[in-house]
Amino acid sequence: MTRPPSPRLYCRFPDWPRRFDDPIPLPGGRQLVTLTDAADYILALPAKTSAQEHWQLAMQMLIDVLRALIHGRPDPANTPRSKRAKAYRVLK
Predict the structure, then answer these.
(1) Using 50, 70 and 90 to split pLDDT, how confident is the model at 5?
(2) Tell me, what's the pLDDT at 75?
(3) Which residues form the domain of 16?
(4) Structural domain includes residue 90
(5) Which of 13, 57, 59, 71 is the most exposed place for a label (fewest CB within 10 A)?
(6) Among residues 83, 39, 87, which one has the least CA distance to residue 63?
(7) Cα dihedral sign, 40-12-22-56
(8) Residue 23 lies in a domain
(9) DSSP the chain
(10) What angle do CA 35, 37, 42 make, to 5 degrees?
């Protein structure tokens, strides 16, 4: 069972909870089933381990997948507001 995606990631990248076609088995019986699981696992690695070439490649591939998923979508922070801001009068 996977935990819910990080709200910080989910609001900016809604494809993070997307499931893999085939789960990635880990030592100890755990599995990575979503992009969020993979990102959390990679980010939780100790610095010495994450500096290894194959983990650097895994991080870069995860970033590339994310870019491919959001290609062509507008940045949510730059989308126009659905309601105009209220105009205030300046009283003298």
Answers:
(1) very low
(2) 62
(3) 7-70
(4) no
(5) 71
(6) 39
(7) negative
(8) yes
(9) -PPPPPHHHHHH-TTTTPEEEEEEE-TTS-EEEEHHHHHHHHHTS-HHHHTSHHHHHHHHHHHHHHHHHHTTPPPGGGSPPSSPPPP-PPP-
(10) 95
Q: What is the pTM of this model?
A: 0.59
The domain total for the chain is 1
- Quick one: average pLDDT of 7-11? 49
CA distance 7 to 21: 23
Say which residue, 55 or 77, is predicted with more confidence: 55
CA distance 78 to 75: 5
Residues 6 or more apart from 23 whose CB is under 8 A from it? 31, 32, 33
Distance from C-alpha of 69 to C-alpha of 13, rounded to nearest angstrom: 9
The model's pLDDT over 31-71, given as tens digits with 9 standing for 90+, comes to: 999 888 888 888 888 999 888 999 899 888 888 887 777 77
* Residue 59 in domain: yes
